[in-house]
Amino acid sequence: MCMRRSLVGLIFCTCYLASYLTNKYVLSVLKFTYPTLFQGWQTLIGGLLLHVSWKLGWVEINSSSRSHVLAWLPASVLFVGIIYAGSRALSRLAIPVFLTLHNVAEVIICGYQKCFRKEKTSPAKICSALFLLATAGCLPFNDSQFDPDGYFWAIIHLFCVGDLVSVLDFPFLYFYRFHGSCCASGFLGFFLMFSTVKLKNLLAPGQCAAWIFFAKIITAGLSILLFDAILTSATTGCLLLGALGEALLVFSERKSS
Asked: How confident is the model over 208-233, as a mean pLDDT?
């Protein structure tokens, strides 16, 4: 069982790393600026793979009544917002910056649990939320590659995450790189979601949070080597503060589980 959990964790990290790097390559290097089409392609590939997985018996899909489908409509709208706003933000921001801002969604979730569900919050989790908020507040003033549109779409993206509890004239070589990358993005996005579900089903919340944190660290670190990213000492300090905040979040999850 321990070997199975470790294998699922490693598969999740691989899918997480490959998915973010591929999306960044399509959106930034290939400069594909049509996130609606990008989202549609990912949804099409994901839907086909989900149907195949259901036919093979890998996943179980229960039929739902019309009332249940209507109840899922708000979540569906938020899911569209997550992908669209996330694509717009990722095309303009460095991956470490994007992931750091993405973590603020945890603060929104924590605030909702504390204020509306009256759940008990540990001191470590409160400190984590404060560190993540401080990092997000400091980043725009210390980011040497500051892009207001990128930060705007990142804010829309994280709020959607928190609330969810064309004919193109391509050169010949570019044509294959683009379609190959988009196809890979669709497959990787599906397998990332699939491995995330398996990870959360097999592991305790604290262990799951630790694997997600590890995946973010290796993704952010490798992205600096592969894409243009200017990290000043101030920006690095903000990112390290955000990492400390998320490490505290992992600690609080492991302690409470």
From this structure: 87
